[in-house]
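User: For a reading group we're discussing how well predicted structures match intuition. Take UDP-glucose:undecaprenyl-phosphate glucose-1-phosphate transferase. Before you show the prediction, I'll give you the sequence so everyone sees exactly what went in.
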Amino acid sequence: MIKENQKFLNKILLIIDICLIFLSLVFSWIIRFKSNLFNVEGQYLSFNNYIRPVIFVVPIFITLYYLFKLYEPYRIRNFSEEILNIIKANASGILLFVLILFLFKEIDYSRILLFIFSIISTITIIIERTIARLILRMVRKKGYNIKYVIVIGYSDLTNELLKRIRSNRHWGYNILGILDDNKYAVKTKQKIAVNHNNVIDNIVLEQVAVSNSEPYIMGKINELEHYLNNQNIDEVFITLDIKEYDKLKNIIAVCEKCGVRTQIIPDYFKYLPARPYVEEIDGLPLINIRYIPLDNIINKIIKRLLDITAAIFCILITSPIMLITALIIKITSHGPVLFKQERVGLNRRNFKMYKFRSMIVQDDEEEKTQWTIKDDPRKTKFGNFIRKTSIDELPQFFNVLKGDMSIIGPRPERPYFVEQFKEEIPKYMIKHQVRPGITGWAQVNGFRGDTSIKKRIEHDLYYIENWTLWLDIKIVFLTIFNGLVNKNAY
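Assistant: Thanks. Here is the predicted 3D structure of UDP-glucose:undecaprenyl-phosphate glucose-1-phosphate transferase, as structure tokens, for the group to look at:
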């Protein structure tokens, strides 16, 4: 029944997607040529000429939606991940659309219309999926579209699983009970003792067991096939203790014999970070202990293209400020305008980070090992101003163009302090698995300059493991709205 419901939902979404893509193109034509929002000069292609490519566009977009897993079950999938996939699919679709126009030499097709279409189609699909999710959540909360589940094994993971399912009723999981040899043996002894004292019967015990404080132990693991054959069970969750993994083979064999989907939550995951993921090496499963979204080639390309675009734009916009700053530094103090400092970047490789010089020229060894403090006597008067206003960081846009840095990412540190912190702070070196940034999640949360290194790393790790395009956009806006002036920027 669940599979049939999912197929029906996919068909509905597919039909709606086709309609929305077509209507987005129609509305884009209306906005471009009939709304008076844009100047229309001379002759332009007819409505039919603009709509005709839809015979190519719709199949392309639908295929991309399949490739980006937009028609897979998303009962517990993160919504931000789905939004990102919609953006990726639509961006890829527009690029292919432009390529088809180029191949067919449709040079008169409005580029403004294409831009409008990309915005409208993306927004409408996101709204559609949002509404679909809200409807499904309401339906599941009312007891429909429910998956009936039994759990095999009773461990710490079992309690974690039950707690999360209870607090997320919209997932639509109904736990019928747990099969566990050790826990069932204890329960049986308790029942014998209770009945011996004529105090309470089995029915009352089971009612207590079903309550939120204690899960219902249905029976022993060897009774699994009986339950699968005699009850309407959609999935089996396996949460065995690692000491009981010798039972896995038989459990999986029984589930497959009965045609029931099986999910394993490995006990050893409690020793791993929050978001490990599984890859394959020629058919062999490989568990990567940390999920880093920017390891994905598509995410990496998108972020790099945005970095290059943003860096060029920022260099053009801030070039007058940089020229004035360079001139004042040259006039007011002795030494070079730019300060090049060695920092540790992506994959622990050192690079030269550019800044406007804000201090007097120092001895190399002193510069490498001395931390900047409040009212630091090494700062020049103008240097104090450009550090407070973050103007000294502007040359780092050139580091972004070179590929040493990103606009958003963990701030890079000097090799001397990296060697020190990696011994003192667990997981410190993980920050070097992505490009360092001009600003980052730690900085917009107040951890900049002379603040807690431990808290800074916690925020850096959150960014690395939870990166999305939306998070980068949020950090950019927080950087702007919180102000570039920072009280901790010594």
